[in-house]
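Researcher: Let's do a round of design. I'm pasting the structure tokens now; please hold your answer until I've finished.
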């Protein structure tokens, strides 16, 4: 499974998470099966390329996106490409992946995103 995190640099696991996924200069992608980490430049439309970020990431085989937060429309767009979005990312890529594995990031693709409702939505299992 390929997990993507928007980043400010190409430092791999120690890279800094970019708070605005569309403006991220790079996307760090971790293949959870092989442990391989790759950093790709953001060539989506924000950076002069042809595609919106969800399509661009889908074309790169991404299945899960971890970011600090994003709007409802963006979540729906990622969903339409079959990409699950988790919010609450911050710090480094390593920090974010560990938080995600520990179930600390919220699944924004769920009908009730935690950003809007203060309660913990324990009805959704985290699959890794």
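Researcher: That's everything. Go ahead.
Model: Designed sequence:
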């Amino acid at each position: 499974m390929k997990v993507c995190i928007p980043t400010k640099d190409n430092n791999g696991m120690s890279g800094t998470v970019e708070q605005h996924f569309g403006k991220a200069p790079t996307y760090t992608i971790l293949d959870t099966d092989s442990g391989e980490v790759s950093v790709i430049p953001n060539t989506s439309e924000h950076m002069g390329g042809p595609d919106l970020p969800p399509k661009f990431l889908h074309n790169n085989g991404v299945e899960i996106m971890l970011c600090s937060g994003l709007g409802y429309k963006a979540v729906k767009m990622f969903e339409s490409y079959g990409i699950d979005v988790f919010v609450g990312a911050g710090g480094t890529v390593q920090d974010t992946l560990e938080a995600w594995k520990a179930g600390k990031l919220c699944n924004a693709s769920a009908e009730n995103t935690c950003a809007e409702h203060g309660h913990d939505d324990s009805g959704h299992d985290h699959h890794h």
